[in-house]
Amino acid sequence: MIMIGPDGAFDRRRVEREIERLESLARDLRRLLDEGPSTAADYPDAPVIHGWRAHPIQVMCLIGAVSGHPDPLVGKPGRITATSDLWVFDPARGLARTLSRVYRLGAPHRDESAAGTSIH
Asked: Rounded to whole angstroms, how far apart are CA atoms 100 and 111?
């Protein structure tokens, strides 16, 4: 996740690395559509993973009540939604970019408004 500070500062090199990573994924997905599935022989220098299995991981996301979403089920009154992966978070400017879209940030959850303060 790219965190943007109140002064607008962020790690430019990290953004560049993420762009490179996502562009590489997009190229591979385009190749899959255009040419079909690859084989291991197509990637002779790729690392090998042994004893592998698929495993879910946790990612940072936002949860809350959403309004104005293109999917009417997401914005259903009383429904709490979890977004896709959170990539850019800029609470000072009221914006968040997830994998799938930009969100404007309304009021935070009451517990989040105290984030960063010490609790005794």
From this structure: 26
Global pTM reads: 0.76
User: Regarding beta strands 2-3 and 63-64, do their DSSP bridges make them parallel or antiparallel, or are they unpaired?
Assistant: unpaired
- The confidence score (pLDDT) of residue 113 equals 53
Residue 69 near residue 75, CB atoms below 8 Å: yes
Tens digit of pLDDT for each residue in 66-114?
A: 999 888 888 888 889 999 999 999 999 999 999 999 999 999 998 765 4
| In the chain, where the domains are located | 2-38+60-107
The two tokens of residue 8 are: 């607008």
Instruction: Using alpha carbons, select from 64, 66, 105, 61 the residue that is nearest to residue 84.
Output: 61
b/e for 32-44, b at 16 or more Cβ within 10 A?
eeeeeeeeeeeee
